[in-house]
Write a structure and sequence with these properties.
This protein is mainly beta. The protein has helices at residues 132-136, 170-173, 182-197; strands at 2-13, 24-35, 39-43, 49-55, 60-62, 66-73, 78-88, 113-120, 124-131, 148-152, 159-162, 165-169. It is built from 3 helices and 12 strands; from the N terminus they run βββββββββαβββαα. Strand 8 (113-120) and strand 9 (124-131) form a beta hairpin.
């Protein structure tokens, strides 16, 4: 019914506990969306957030499902919903949490780190982030400014993670977009990811 077009999200984590020994964060979100079918409900996908401001031109009541509007949104029109909220930086691996592994969907790290940057053209940027002192001492200077991959028709091994030039058996780097199966494409992507991870 509603198709999001653009998000603007600000998160402010408190890195020291509040008087109740909780680590909190505040934030705001502005979402621009297009209405595909007339509706008076905006579903908000969030968990464990307390909303302090929920504002747009069609104010309504907030419930567990979302926001029930006082009027209907018109099909084909664009709208913007602005919210402000508070949540807890917990250690339960749910939502925005502290000191744990990434969610594989979005990783956000709050730190005072430095980085080494390599850039090729306008689009390819590779960065290594680490403690400022480690970067200053050159601990990340091994990062390659360029890594090539080559497909060899008669390569004995499946692939080899050579420094600066990763070599592959041709069938492990290339696939035919017209005839290769999804399984073949998945295998190719897995092998490339494995070699580059070395």
């Amino acid at each position: 019914t509603l198709v999001p077009l653009q998000y603007s999200v600000t998160l402010w984590p408190r890195l020291t506990p509040d008087p109740n020994d909780l680590y909190l964060f505040t934030g705001n979100s502005s979402v621009e969306f297009e209405c595909m079918e007339e509706t008076d409900l905006i579903v908000i996908h969030s968990n464990k957030l307390t909303y302090s401001v929920l504002d747009n031109n069609h104010l309504g009541q907030l419930s567990a499902r979302g926001m029930r509007l006082n009027g209907k949104l018109a099909r084909g029109q664009r709208y913007r919903l602005y919210t402000e909220f508070t949540g807890e930086l917990a250690d339960d691996l749910a939502g925005f949490y502290r000191k744990r592994m990434s969610s594989y969907l979005l990783a956000l790290v709050v730190c005072d780190y430095a980085n080494l940057t390599a850039q090729q053209g306008d689009t390819l940027v590779i960065r290594i982030w680490a403690r400022r002192r480690a970067i200053e001492e050159g601990h990340g200077d091994y990062a390659l400014r360029l890594t090539d991959q080559i497909a060899l028709p008669d390569f004995y091994f499946g692939a080899m993670e050579n420094w600066g030039l990763v070599t592959y058996r041709e069938t492990n780097l290339l696939y035919d977009p017209l005839t290769s199966s999804n399984r073949n494409r998945e295998t190719t992507a897995t092998i490339i990811a494995h070699e580059l991870a070395h």
